[in-house]
Amino acid sequence: MKVTYYGHACFSVQVAGKTLLFDPFISPNALANAIDITTIAADYILLSHGHEDHVADAEMIARRTGAMIIGNFEVVSWFAKKGLAKLHPLNTGGAFAFDFGRVKFVNALHSSSMPDGSYGGAPGGFVVETKAGNFYYSGDTALTLDMNLIGEATKLNFAALCIGDNFTMGVEDAIKAADFIRCDHILGVHYDTFPPIVIDHAEAISKFREAEKYLHLLSIGAAHEF
Ligand code: NI
Ligand code: MN
């Protein structure tokens, strides 16, 4: 599975001949100036919750690519009101088999409102199971014991975990999350974008190494094969 990082909590995964794009927040992100969003491919856009720093570019990319938006019922309904038609709503605990694999919308402990302040439903994360491998994206969340259920149910090739602290898990909690989900290869997301979530990269990587885990902090625009 080829993973490309677009800054903040936005990344794409190429798997089973499809491109899955998660939480596009690129054009408002000063750190991602070098990314031209008109070149980003997507067959599916998966949105963890309604906050602006997760949905900002979803409408534009969905219109250009024709990608289907997958998210919770309220997030998907918000895009339906904008006239988008290729949508698939999920809600917490529910899974659906798409052509690339099975997606389960799992618990996240956070909040969710849309950019216009309307109700954004329950925030979540995604467990994606495919013939080419499995991965988990936490979305914005606190550390929860519920993450044990993910590790019990699914053998993960990698996980994208929020590590920036302040709004979400920080590094120490993300290491515990990696234990709970039984995954040693972690893509760090949701760090550096805003002053309260700036992290020391070398320190974060070494803390994961002390726990015998690998934290991948990709440069914006860089790709990694998991
Ligand atoms: Ni959020
Ligand atoms: Mn966020």
Structure, explained:
By secondary structure, the protein is of the alpha/beta class. It has a single domain, classed as Ribonuclease Z/Hydroxyacylglutathione hydrolase-like (Metallo-beta-lactamase, Chain A, 4-Layer Sandwich), CATH 3.60.15. It is 21% helix and 28% strand. The protein has six helices and 14 strands. The strands form two sheets. A seven-stranded mixed sheet has the order 6-5-4-3-2-1-14, with helices on one face. Strands 7-8-9-10-11-12-13 form a seven-stranded mixed sheet. Bound molecules: nickel (II) ion and manganese (II) ion. Nickel (II) ion (NI) binds next to loops.
CATH classification class? Alpha Beta
> Which series of helices and strands comes N to C?
EEEEHHEHEEEEEHEHEHEE
Shape verdict: globular
- Helix count from the secondary structure assignment: 6
Provide the residue-averaged pLDDT: 98
Blueprint of the fold:
Layout: E1 2-5, E2 11-15, E3 18-22, E4 44-46, H1 52-55, H2 58-65, E5 68-72, H3 73-81, E6 87-90, E7 95-97, E8 102-107, E9 124-130, E10 133-137, H4 147-153, E11 158-162, H5 171-180, E12 185-189, H6 201-210, E13 214-216, E14 223-225
Parallel strand pairs: 3-4, 4-5, 5-6, 10-11, 11-12, 12-13
Antiparallel strand pairs: 1-2, 1-14, 2-3, 7-8, 8-9, 9-10
The structure holds nickel (II) ion (NI) and manganese (II) ion (MN).
